Amino acid sequence: MSQAPEYQLWIEGGYRPGRQGQYFDALNPANGEVIGRVAQADEEDVDAAVAAAVRGQKVWGAMSGVARGRILMKTATLLREHRDELARLETLDGGKPIAETPEADVDSAADCLEYFAGQASSLQGEYQSVDGGFFYTRPEPLGVCAGIGAWNYPIQIAAWKSAPALAAGNSMVFKPAELTPLSALRLAELFRDAGLPDGVFNVVQGFAETGQAMTAHPDVAKVSLTGEVGTGKAVMKASADSLKAVTLELGGKSPLIVWDDADLDNAVSGAMMGNFYTQGQICTNGTRVFVHESVRDAFVEKLLERTGKLRVGDPMDPSTDVGPMVSKGHHDHVMSFIEKGRSEGGKVLIGGESVSVPGFENGGFVAPTVFDSLNDDMTIVREEIFGPVLSLLTFRDEDEVVSRANSTPFGLAAGVFTRDLNRGHRMAAGLDAGIVWLNEYNLTPIEMPFGGIKQSGIGKENSRRAFEHYTRLKTVYVAEGDVDAPY
Ligand code: NDP
């Protein structure tokens, strides 16, 4: 019998066991140890969470935006006060280096709560005078929203979904990915400590079936998912029966384009951040690195020199750059892509292997990998790997590189490194991507709309645009004269 702590579901402001008494294990990806036993929600538990959210939303939606904002702001303050503890929890549960989690995970979640705390009181409608009177519009909450998260940025995703939803007066039932179930529960506790009314934020745990119970639920008005393209399609289909609104943040295979006039040190920094940060487990990663043929050798020299210095190891060690993959299964999945890359004729310039870290033999570590000698049709150039695998490609001219960059069903992000501003803007216009970074990569300030196009998603998170996806617009016409009836 495992001695690991038990984590229950969070429903109506407190912990509750699952009705079936089923548990699954939360593992530390660095060593495979069980760090918790997590209650699994069945359909009835999801029903209970949704019913609690319906009750909670009535209270919450009736409060003023200022009052809601105050509670979100207090939650952000509590997140910052618990920064170290939360960062350690994310590292323990997801294997992300402790060098990353305080800023990339906890601060990012707190920034989001602060931003939407400030926006909560400024949801505005419009007024317009028309023939016979005027109309105004009311942005109203949708009701109960379901949030379903991926495992790569657990607390950030929970905040990116809950903060705008709650700011707009909705309640939420949130399901973290089953591989990283813990931090959403801490967020729920901090919401409660900040004074959030019971039932406004609920956490159910489980696998795809739990997510399916959420998407099928008649009292859920909206589903926001972060996950794979296939899951996005399943969620959209399931939501169609009750015409729920969906926001889908899905996968990608984004291009990062380095011109001959680029600052190569910055471009290499961008390529490394966009391929190796969080072990490469980032949806927006620029995994297809197109380098102008005239600077290819210089770029590769710098890239390999710096990549060779990355330290793979214990994610709790502050000097570690690259921790374990989120699970042994995902490690094997990434390694199978590396093998495929080799067997299709790609050449590994660095990495390309599983790394054994002393004391962490049960963790699945993958060396940061750069592939060369590729063409656009190879599997590793076309498919999302979600690991530290960079595909190096070269190009000659602008039309060619834009067309090759766009030749994918994905459309999440893109990066262009160039000193030629006109070219940068022209390419930003031509690239099929929801986000384009010019001379940067992977920065996602909360003020900036975030989301993909094509098969990378629907809708935007962050920024005031997020409110469009968490409100319904009611139009109210007001007559100023008599009714002009022809009968
Ligand atoms: P998955 O699609 O496997 O899972 C995402 C979530 O959906 C999990 O909570 C999962 O539960 C749940 N789920 C699975 N099937 C269903 C279903 N049929 N109905 C409802 N919910 C379901 O993604 P991963 O967790 O593996 O995350 C990696 C993927 O997420 C990558 O493709 C990545 O690109 C994408 N991603 C996109 C981002 C973006 O903003 N665009 C950001 C981060 C990641 P369970 O975990 O139990 O399977």
TrEMBL record:
Protein name: Betaine-aldehyde dehydrogenase
PANTHER family named among the record's database cross-references: ALDEHYDE DEHYDROGENASE-RELATED
Species per Swiss-Prot/TrEMBL record: Tamilnaduibacter salinus
Annotated catalysed reactions: betaine aldehyde + NADP(+) + H2O = glycine betaine + NADPH + 2 H(+); betaine aldehyde + NAD(+) + H2O = glycine betaine + NADH + 2 H(+)
All residue ranges annotated as the Aldehyde dehydrogenase domain in the record: 19-476
GO MF term list: betaine-aldehyde dehydrogenase (NAD+) activity; metal ion binding
Family listed: Belongs to the aldehyde dehydrogenase family.
Residue positions of the active site: 249
Assembly mode: Dimer of dimers.
Top-level lineage group: Bacteria
